[in-house]
């Protein structure tokens, strides 16, 4: 288990948002970002144990990294068996990479006449898969751990500090939004910077 992959991913994402940010080019960030995230989650050898602990119920949202300028963040979502989120939005671009287990993402869109939210596309993710979320294209969804007998873990990357923004949950029947701020579960972030073993190994 080595955190090196995560550190490299964060470096690559920092370069990416630094280059594309002047134009606020979301499409460019997400196009390259989903390849980087796909590479990260196709290897399950880097997530620290403390960030992977399956909760008794519901889900943990562990912040792995937030960019100093809040241009992006990386979060480990750890799902209890069968856990399900409310129907919600994000207010920023997002990418969901499946690391361990499996989850489903059911998209909703408002009925133009009644405003009620109607279910649409259902994406099923398995390890190595990445789903992209874009507010411009409609990002209201509900996520469920597809496994009812074990935990699942997905690594989420968002175009901001997702835990500290006002966003919404929705009443599906009426489409009524309700403000919420999700926060994070962990109080401490993993140490990305103790590279001493690597340096000692160099002769
Ligand atoms: Fe979401």
TrEMBL record:
CDD domains: cupin_CDO (cd10548)
Keywords: Dioxygenase, Iron, Metal-binding, Oxidoreductase
Species annotation: Reyranella soli
Transmembrane segments: none
Domain of life: Bacteria
PANTHER family: CYSTEINE DIOXYGENASE, CYSTEINE DIOXYGENASE TYPE 1
Gene3D superfamilies: ATP synthase delta/epsilon subunit, C-terminal domain (1.20.5.440), Jelly Rolls (2.60.120.10)
Positions of Fe cation binding: 88, 90, 141
Protein family membership: Belongs to the cysteine dioxygenase family.
GO molecular function annotation: ferrous iron binding; oxidoreductase activity, acting on single donors with incorporation of molecular oxygen, incorporation of two atoms of oxygen
Name of the protein in question: 3-mercaptopropionate dioxygenase
């Amino acid at each position: 288990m080595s955190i090196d992959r995560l550190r490299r991913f964060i470096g690559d994402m920092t370069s990416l948002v630094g280059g594309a940010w002047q134009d606020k080019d979301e499409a460019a960030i997400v196009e390259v970002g989903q390849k980087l995230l796909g590479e990260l989650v196709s290897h399950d050898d880097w997530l620290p144990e403390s960030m992977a602990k399956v909760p008794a119920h519901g889900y943990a949202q562990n912040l792995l990294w937030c960019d100093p300028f809040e241009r992006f963040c990386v979060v480990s979502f750890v799902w209890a068996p069968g856990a399900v989120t409310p129907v919600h939005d994000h207010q920023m671009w997002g990418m969901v990479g499946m690391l361990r287990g499996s989850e489903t993402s059911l998209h909703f869109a408002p009925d133009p006449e009644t405003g009620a939210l109607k279910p649409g596309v259902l994406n099923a993710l398995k390890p190595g898969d990445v789903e992209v979320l874009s507010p411009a294209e409609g990002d209201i969804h509900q996520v469920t751990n597809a496994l009812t007998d074990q935990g699942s873990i997905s690594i989420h990357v968002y175009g901001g500090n997702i835990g500290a923004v006002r966003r919404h949950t929705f009443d599906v029947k009426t489409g009524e939004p309700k403000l919420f701020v999700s926060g994070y579960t962990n109080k401490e972030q993993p140490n990305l910077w103790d590279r001493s073993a690597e340096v000692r190994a160099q002769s």
